[in-house]
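Message: A physicist's question: would you kindly supply an amino acid chain plus fold tokens?
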Amino acid sequence: MKKKEYPRNTGKILRWFEEISKIPRQSKHERKICQRLLNWAKENDLAAQIDQIGNIVIHVPATKGYEDAPTIILQAHVDMVCEKLFDSTHDFSNDPIELIYEENILRANNTTLGADNGIGVAFALSIALDQKIDHPDLELLLTVEEESGLKGAISLDETLIKGDLLINLDAGDEKTFVIGCSGGANIRITLPLKLVALNNDEWEPYILKTDGIKGGHSGVDIHLQRANAIKELISALDFCMDTLDFRIAYLKGGSATNAIPRYIETTLFIKQGEINLFRKEMKKIEAIIQREYRNTDPNISLILEENKAFSSLQAMSKESNRKIIKTILALPDGVESMSKTINGLVDTSNNLATAAIENDRLVVLTSLRSSSSRLIAFQNQITSIVELIGGRYLLLDEYPGWEANLDSPLLKICKDVYRNLFLEDPVIEIIHAGLECGIIGRKRPGIDMISLGPKIRNEHSPSECIYIDTIEHTWNLIVGVLAKIQ
């Protein structure tokens, strides 16, 4: 559908988002977008700095009358989660995101959209060049590697920023102010395996894979109890492990620690003479899974097909076969506990994010989040499982939570502006997802922060979309808040 005419500010932000979407910016591969931002700053005579990991700070002078007002940091991350449908040929390393406008919805063609958080970057750039708005000195803090463990914020050179007020542009609902979030950590688990040679006359290779799973953001969507592709496929194998003879030769599932796994593929050697029975068992299990997830993942399926291209005759020993299946089954996934103080808030969760066979090892990445001290106990629970099965683990990418401040002066200004503009109260929320605010807050003690943004849904999945009418809503709010900082 052809893009229609939008209000001036919405159109301006969308044009910037279109420009950003032309530049590949997978997490850990942000060099091109960072160079584009530095060039933009130079073209517009704005001072810019970049730290060792690649975070950029662009300085925007105050407008007349605001020279003595406190400096405000507008913060967004430049990277994106790269997920696509199985039949998509999109190359995230080279191809621009193909945008599709549908009335009030902007989405991508079978890939993640990258509105998380490209739309935040577009807001910051649009505000910086708008001569019609009033604002104090601005620092545009544009971070890297947020989607791969918040590493940009963790490695941020804090001497580059001076502001004591920060508006994070990474929230996903125009009516909501986020004032706190969970902390978290990732655990990398490795388990030694034994490969054996199989007799070509006795075994045949087949691919077993999942399809039709929604996935989603492992913080925002974890409470929706959607299917985890890794868990479901391994559970299917466990169902028939003691009655049918098969051996795992290849396994790869999931794509990112902060995305609920949508897809997993394994190559199995199945004993000749048992293929038809194996197929019947998979169909039986598929029917059970489809009933269980009919409301959350109505299109879920298991696909079994010949793998004529698989040339190796090596696969897991019977013992290693069992170790893979039982290990993945033993690891927790989903909501572990709900908050005891805030109704409806997930307190602690785990996303069993990726699993793969790498040479003679099973490698699993799992991502924990928590708003409480339960995080440490949950870590210990998982690492105890790993120790008991003879595996090894490495704790990665730990990041702190962001403690809510209900007495925040910035929150009061935002609420007042919101009420005056929209004649209603905003929603005040603490979220289970991780934001960079907790890390930045530790680097700049006492900084006053809030997170807001337009309405985005299904982040970290190919269903990601942004509601276009909420862009103008968010623009008016931010401009109103900037004008109130005196």
Remarks:
- The chain has a mean pLDDT of 95.
